[in-house]
Amino acid sequence: MISDILNRLSGHDANPDPLDADDARRALAALLVRIARADGTYASDEMTRIDRVLGSRYDLAPFEAAALRAEAETIEAEAPDTVRFTRAIKDHVAYEDRIGVIEALWDVVLADGKRDEEEDSLLRMIAPMLGVTDRDSNLARRRVESRS
């Protein structure tokens, strides 16, 4: 199942179907897990924040959000690069919603109350991959910081 998802996300499937909403959710969830793991520490506050972001974004019950995160953890661990997730999101999500993705990523990065260098660096790489400008990413970070 995981290899099927990775093949769909990467476009390497022999008969690729259009990316469906569930795969787009998985791509975002895996990207959230990847940013949380970027500093080598994957703490419970980050997992909780990912669950909250997924629950809020997709109107999921807490157990559904946790299940999506758990699936995303496996997908993220098996995916060789970040490009698969960003491409899937960029190709299937409107720009305004991609800014929301950046906010969700900043929300996870700032879950522990500090900006870790590795997480910060990865997010600065991801924003342009999603086609989001530095300015809009900065504004998204400020909105997240003001809510904290």
TrEMBL record:
Domain of life where this protein originates: Bacteria
Every Co-chaperone DjlA N-terminal domain range: 26-141
InterPro entries found in the cross-reference section: DjlA_N, TerB-like
Protein name: Putative tellurite resistance protein B-like protein
